[in-house]
C-alpha cells in the first residue's frame, strides 16, 4: 500500500486519515478532507435525521448545514469525544433550527406524519433483550421513551426536546422525572 503524506492511498482511492486528522486538514482549508468527512458521515446522518423528521428537504438542509458548519469552524470540535458525535450534535441542532419558529413547517410536518418509525436507538434497545436497562426502557410508555431518547440518547436540552417533540418544556421535565422513577423501579 502506498500512502502519501496526507494519508491518501492512491492505489485504493481511500483516505486513511482519522476523522480528527481530517478536521485538522479542513482547518487548513483542505476541501478534499471535507469531502472525505462528508462521504464517511453523510449517509448515517441522513438516515438518523430522517427518522426524526419526515420532510426530506429539512433533512437534506440539516446535513448540508452540518458540513458547512464544519467548513466554517472545524475548531468547534475540541478533541474530546468522537467526531461523529460532534457532527450529530450539529445536525440535530440544525434540524431543530429549521423547525422552530415557522408555523407552516410545523403544520406540514403534522400532515406528513404517518405511523411513527422506530429510531436507530429504539431498534438497538429492542435487540438488547437480556439487558435490564433495555427491558425497563421497553416497559416505558411511548411518550416517556421519546423524552428519554431525545434528552439522554440524543443529548438535547429540555427546550430542544420540547421543540422536537412538540410539547411544552415543563412536560418534558415531568415526563423525564416519571421515566427516571419508572426505570429505577424497573431495575430493582
Automatic annotation (TrEMBL):
Gene Ontology MF, one: DNA binding
Listed InterPro entries: RNA_pol_sigma-70-like, RNA_pol_sigma-70_dom, RNA_pol_sigma70_r2, RNA_pol_sigma70_r4_t2, RNA_pol_sigma_r2, RNA_pol_sigma_r3/r4-like, WH-like_DNA-bd_sf
Keywords: Sigma factor, Transcription, Transcription regulation
Alphabetical list of Pfam families matching this protein: Sigma70_r2, Sigma70_r4_2
Gene3D superfamilies: 1.10.1740.10, Winged helix-like DNA-binding domain superfamily/Winged helix DNA-binding domain
Residues of the RNA polymerase sigma-70 region domain: 37-102
Source organism, top-level taxon: Bacteria
Domain RNA polymerase sigma factor 70 region 4 type: 135-183
GO biological process: DNA-templated transcription initiation
NCBIfam families documented for this protein: sigma70-ECF (TIGR02937)
Record family assignment: Belongs to the sigma-70 factor family. ECF subfamily.
UniProt-recorded name of the protein: RNA polymerase sigma factor
Species annotation: Nocardioides ganghwensis
Lineage: Bacteria, Bacillati, Actinomycetota, Actinomycetes, Propionibacteriales
Amino acid at each position: 500500500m502506498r500512502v502519501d503524506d496526507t494519508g491518501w492511498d492512491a492505489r485504493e482511492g481511500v483516505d486513511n486519515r482519522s476523522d480528527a486528522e481530517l478536521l485538522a486538514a479542513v482547518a487548513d482549508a483542505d476541501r478534499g478532507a471535507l469531502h472525505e468527512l462528508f462521504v464517511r458521515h453523510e449517509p448515517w446522518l441522513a438516515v438518523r435525521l430522517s427518522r426524526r423528521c419526515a420532510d426530506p428537504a429539512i433533512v437534506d438542509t440539516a446535513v448540508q448545514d452540518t458540513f458547512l458548519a464544519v467548513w466554517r469552524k472545524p475548531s468547534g470540535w475540541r478533541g474530546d469525544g468522537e467526531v461523529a458525535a460532534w457532527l450529530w450534535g450539529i445536525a440535530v441542532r440544525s434540524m431543530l433550527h429549521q423547525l422552530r419558529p415557522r408555523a407552516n413547517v410545523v403544520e406540514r410536518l403534522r400532515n406528513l406524519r404517518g405511523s411513527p418509525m422506530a429510531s436507530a436507538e429504539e431498534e438497538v434497545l429492542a435487540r438488547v433483550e437480556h439487558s435490564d436497562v433495555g427491558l425497563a426502557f421497553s416497559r416505558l410508555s411511548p411518550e416517556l421513551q421519546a423524552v428519554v431518547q431525545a434528552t439522554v440518547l440524543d443529548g438535547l436540552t429540555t427546550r430542544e426536546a420540547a421543540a422536537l417533540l412538540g410539547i411544552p418544556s415543563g412536560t418534558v421535565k415531568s415526563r423525564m422525572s416519571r421515566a427516571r422513577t419508572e426505570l429505577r423501579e424497573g431495575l430493582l
